[in-house]
From TrEMBL, chains A, B:
<keyword id="KW-0804">Transcription</keyword>
<keyword id="KW-0805">Transcription regulation</keyword>
<dbReference type="GO" id="GO:0003700">
    <property type="term" value="F:DNA-binding transcription factor activity"/>
</dbReference>
<dbReference type="Pfam" id="PF13377">
    <property type="entry name" value="Peripla_BP_3"/>
</dbReference>
<dbReference type="InterPro" id="IPR010982">
    <property type="entry name" value="Lambda_DNA-bd_dom_sf"/>
</dbReference>
<dbReference type="GO" id="GO:0000976">
    <property type="term" value="F:transcription cis-regulatory region binding"/>
</dbReference>
<keyword id="KW-0238">DNA-binding</keyword>
<dbReference type="InterPro" id="IPR028082">
    <property type="entry name" value="Peripla_BP_I"/>
</dbReference>
<dbReference type="InterPro" id="IPR000843">
    <property type="entry name" value="HTH_LacI"/>
</dbReference>
<protein>
    <submittedName>
        <fullName>LacI family DNA-binding transcriptional regulator</fullName>
    </submittedName>
</protein>
<feature type="domain" description="HTH lacI-type">
    <location>
        <begin position="6"/>
        <end position="61"/>
    </location>
</feature>
<dbReference type="InterPro" id="IPR046335">
    <property type="entry name" value="LacI/GalR-like_sensor"/>
</dbReference>
<dbReference type="Pfam" id="PF00356">
    <property type="entry name" value="LacI"/>
</dbReference>
Length: 334, 334
DNA sequence: CTGAAAGCGCTTACAG
DNA sequence: CTGAAAGCGCTTACAG
């Protein structure tokens, strides 16, 4: 029942050595410490339930042992999956992870970035295609390594990141739909300022044009949420009743959309087919199960963290970009 | 282009004052600093893009400004919702949050707890009804405040926590089903070692017995995941074809279960009704939309963080428990 | 094989 | 109104 946490000093006193010696054995830099001293120190540390003060450690070493992950919203299954992967990988390297919900809000982004800098995070995973390069610049000025996942910040295309080829996904998606006999395809894209929105739209347009089925008035804009999907689908239903397929550029919108279609008495896939993008965990549970573009979300998270750790350790001379290929996952909504 | 982060010393030198003075103005404890000095210091700090080193600050103040949240799996919508709420509330108080995925693994739990202690977290939100009190004891020994959410650790029932009355939920749920004409109800409970599993089962049993519809062989055990729901549902379908309802003790299992029922050609709600528990965000999007027991998940998260902060600030003399009442949310699966 | 000492960047009484 | 000094709990050359 000691009033406060034991320190190295306490152990040192009890063992009759200096705290330098204690530090060495506790950090396994004890090549040259006698077996007896080491055993004694270890025993005392154990008995005292000693837990090192890593804040003090950080102050000397200038490393915090924590990384940050900045994402739009942990509640979105896509991001929680990434966060999970990052944390799993980080944990293997003995890093903790601080998460920050940005909500696509630049002010929040900057505020959090500064907080992470002040906490001396060793690196950050950036999963928010902020319209503003400000936060990234702050990181750079403070020499904190970062890697993008899924989406990058404008002007930082060549920095380290892990992506899944977005343009290819929607490009191939349209081809698949065409092969399935679909000719009247509406496309719903997300937040215009995001690189992934643009890329997915580009892929759609290119493919649809090549096949001669592109119609400008069948392209709709919404945001990447269930609510966004519901809202825009009402509009799609109201404005064009001749379409045979809705291709949503993420699963969350597709899920919201299917709900709206159902409420409107439109059957999926009989009356209209629905295609998603991402393949979040829940998509296979929908009724009908959602046909979508699969991305290896978990793997992307793992790789991003490994990449980050390499940067932190200085094992990478230059920026590195990892690209995955998306795959069409056929289920029942087409 | 300075090689390393500017410190208070740098500002002090540039302003021709001591770092004590700089510290005071930057921390707004500047009642007695002349307007001129303050302005000068602020201007220099701004020009240098000074970001305080909060690690150093922590070492002096013995507070880290971060809290930890320990949960089973951030990928589970229930927990990501809590995590989101906690982070929102924490952010209002200028706390960062570190999240840890426990996976119901005691070894991980203990490891993470020590890590959080070593990082000097100011408090922790504990959302994992660990079978073992070990982690909680470590927290206690190190005088780190914690509050439970949703589930508590055995033997710590009287510690601060935020709960939704679990027994009441399933108790009322059965009554509701009975009122709907259901008499042959199978109940699927989760991990036996968790307090919420026991409580929900108790509520079910009590209610079913009162109504004279309890059948021991209609109680099934699985775990709180989609996969767990799928697996157990196969068994339910195989062993009893006379049941008219399956009451799952969380939504994730119900969602998995509906998938299995569909695959088996069993229609919901026509052939068998399905009832969930939790009301996670996705439940309303299912087809049929899931009838479930609503819990105010987000609010619970917010309250837990506020409670924690009060503990941290020493504004609470004793432990405090907040209880919410669950509500039946009628949708279409019954 | 081990200790004394300086330093990491702050905060906080205490003086003046 | 402001500065000098000690201290937070570690790590890390450097001596011996």
């Amino acid at each position: 029942m000691k009033k406060s946490k034991p320190t190295m000093q306490d152990i040192a006193k009890a063992a009759g050595v200096s705290k330098a010696t204690v530090s060495m054995v506790l950090n396994k830099k004890d090549d040259c410490i006698s077996e007896g001293t080491r055993a004694r120190i270890l025993a005392i540390a154990d008995e005292l339930n000693y837990i090192p003060n890593s804040i003090a450690r950080s102050l000397s070493t200038n490393k915090s042992g924590t990384i940050g992950i900045m994402l739009p919203d942990i509640t979105n299954p896509f991001f929680s999956q990434i966060a999970r992967a990052v944390e799993d990988a980080a944990s293997d390297y003995d890093y903790n992870v601080i998460f920050c919900n940005m909500d696509n809000d630049i002010a929040k982004e900057v505020k959090y970035t500064k907080l992470l800098v002040s906490k001396l995070v060793d690196g950050v995973i950036f999963v928010t295609g902020g319209r503003s390069p400000e936060s990234v610049k702050i990181l750079e000025n403070n020499h904190i390594p970062f890697v993008f996942v899924d989406r990058h910040v404008q002007g930082f295309e060549h920095y380290s990141g892990v992506y899944c080829l977005n343009k290819d996904g929607s490009y191939e998606g349209v081809k698949y739909l065409y092969k399935k006999g679909k000719r009247k395809i509406a496309f719903v894209t997300g937040d215009k300022t995001l690189s992934i929105s643009k890329l997915r739209l580009e892929g759609f347009m290119e493919s649809a044009m090549e096949l001669g089925i592109y119609r400008e008035d069948w392209v709709f804009y919404s945001d990447f949420t269930i609510e966004g999907g519901r809202r825009i689908t009402e509009k799609v239903v109201a404005t064009c009743d001749e379409i045979d397929t809705i291709f949503y550029s993420n699963d969350l919108m597709a899920i919201g959309g299917m709900r709206t279609l159902r409420a409107a008495g439109i059957r999926v896939p009989d009356d209209v087919g629905v295609m998603g993008y991402d393949d979040i965990a829940i998509s296979g549970m929908m009724n009908p199960a959602l046909t979508t573009i699969h991305q290896p979300i978990y793997d992307m998270g793992i790789q991003s963290c490994r990449l980050l750790v390499k940067h932190i350790r200085g094992q990478l001379k230059k920026q590195k970009i990892i690209r995955y290929a998306p795959e069409i996952l056929e289920r029942q909504s087409i």
